[in-house]
Amino acid sequence: MPGGVNSPARAFGGVGGKPVVIQRGAGAWLYDIDGNRYIDYIGSWGPMILGHAHPVVTEAIECAARLGTSFGAPTVAENEMAELIIDLVPSVEKVRLVNSGTEATMSAIRLARGFTGRDRIVKFAGNYHGHVDSLLVAAGSSAATLSVPNSPGVTAGTSQDTLILRYNDPDGLREAFDQHGQSIAAIILEPVVGNMGCVLPTAEFLAAARQLTQRHGSLLIFDEVMTGFRVALGGAQSLFGVTPDLTTLGKIVGGGLPIAAYGGRADVMDHVLPAGRVFQAGTLSGNPLATAAGIATLRLLRDDPPYARLERLGARLELGLHRAAEQAGIPHHVARTGSMMTFFFNSCPVTDWDVASRSDTARYGRYFWHLLDQGVYMPCSQYEALFISAAHGDAEIDQTIQAAQAAFASC
Ligand code: KE4
Fold this sequence. Notes:
By secondary structure, the protein is α/β, with parallel strands linked by helices. 38% of the residues lie in helices and 15% in strands. The strands form three sheets. The protein has a seven-stranded mixed beta sheet, with helices on both faces.
């Protein structure tokens, strides 16, 4: 396998050394093949909000598997999944299930272009939306870590219609619409960024994105693959009270199995084949095992929401890391929304990619390894968010803060 991994984010490219090989997960913990265990703050890059091997989710998958793994025909579970998403995500009136966040954003972009008849897409530096050719420019996540913002193989033709702007820059957005408004099909953005590290939006930026798209007949796409069901049950759109036209979902929606979705206004979604003419298809879309895991996960989050607990644990960890870094005299900035957070080795508040990219990534690498050696598995890149699960408790947070105190003393 190229680089020994099936996704570059796992390759430790941003921190050096070789990745640990995981054997299993249980609750807040991961166990590697050498018998070491770690408090897990990656959570599979977001999906594992309930913790690893949750018994209800595991049981749902086992039951589904006994009935067959894929039919290529409609099932009741797909309808149950669609209804749950429509009930929980304020802006979603109709939804299409796909297999990955990339497929969701790729499809949403195609739909926006098909619906508006326009070509241009606006994205923001440091925002990552999966390996969609037209969006893989000035991307975040592993593209930022491995500094391959313009990946080889992405043709000029594919990226020529993509405008890249600065996140949290409403004036820049206004200028772009003044210049190109009539040719912009959509804006796509992470409503809380996770892929340049965690960066929060300003209310003014989100308001400008919503107003300008409305005024110019463009669509607003919230990429909530990471924030959906993470920062709140209804995602960032419910937290900020901004209603996008389309929303992409992934990660948590599948409870760790490969399922994602795009959805939104019915009048837009009705353009998707076979209701409309915008083509999108997938052999395993709405797969019985994935929908079983997703339904079990969303029902648990709906019926016993962990968000107050995640907020308390997140605040404790944020304060603990901040105090430990202060004590060690380390310039830093901590950004957090609920259980999604990043500790930046950066003396400035991180509001966009220009600032984020000046973080001390070498120091982050030393911090990462000091923590890993003490049994704490942080994201293996400065440009990723950490995630706390409902299976984490005060004991894990305390152990993490103690490990960070030791790490700051020597990194
Ligand atoms: P996937 O195709 O990896 O399922 O989703 C792509 C995607 C889309 N949108 C957002 C906001 C995302 O964060 C992602 C994927 N996130 C990365 C981690 N930052 C996935 C990890 C990886 O690539 O291995």
